[in-house]
């Protein structure tokens, strides 16, 4: 059986440049509790959700086109394997489609069979299709508040 990494895509009513800016502003759509920077290649940032934290490195950043983050460490305190995301990769594709922009999101390594898959799939869906979309289209996302 082939591994199936979590992926989704959706359109936003914004330019590729505005979309790129929204994605890289993680404190406005993912969690308000962010240390470091997510703006350029080699930047390292950590997102915090109470006892859970995820540290990512910007591996690729092409304005208005593509972003990729490597998960270099994590502590998902509620899992048996607290490092389950370590070594995974998050890839964003950004492309113009008429007056809209298509976002393609892939979390390579987040596959069915991982303990967190169902919870993480639901969380990504909410953050992406609700919070990030709202941030890009209206200027106000719904990130997790500092805890």
Given the C-alpha coordinates, what overall shape results? Answer: globular
User: What is the mean predicted local confidence, pLDDT?
Assistant: 96
Determine the structural class based on helices, strands and strand pairing: alpha+beta
> How would you characterize the largest beta sheet?
7 strands, antiparallel
Distance between the termini: 40 Å
**Radius of gyration, rounded?**
15 Å
Overview of the molecule:
The chain is an alpha+beta fold. The chain has helices at 16-24, 117-138, and strands at 6-12, 34-36, 44-49, 52-62, 66-75, 89-97, 100-108. The longest helix is centred in the C-terminal third of the chain and has 22 residues, at 117-138. 21% of the residues lie in helices and 37% in strands. The chain starts with 5 loop residues before the first strand and ends in a 9-residue tail after the last helix. A hairpin with a 7-residue loop joins strand 2 (34-36) and strand 3 (44-49).
Summarize the structure.
The protein is an alpha+beta fold and 147 residues long.
Features:
globular, 37% strand, 2 helices, 7 strands, alpha+beta
List the helices and strands and how they pair.
Blueprint: E1 6-12, H1 16-24, E2 34-36, E3 44-49, E4 52-62, E5 66-75, E6 89-97, E7 100-108, H2 117-138
Antiparallel strand pairs: 1-7, 2-3, 3-4, 4-5, 5-6, 6-7
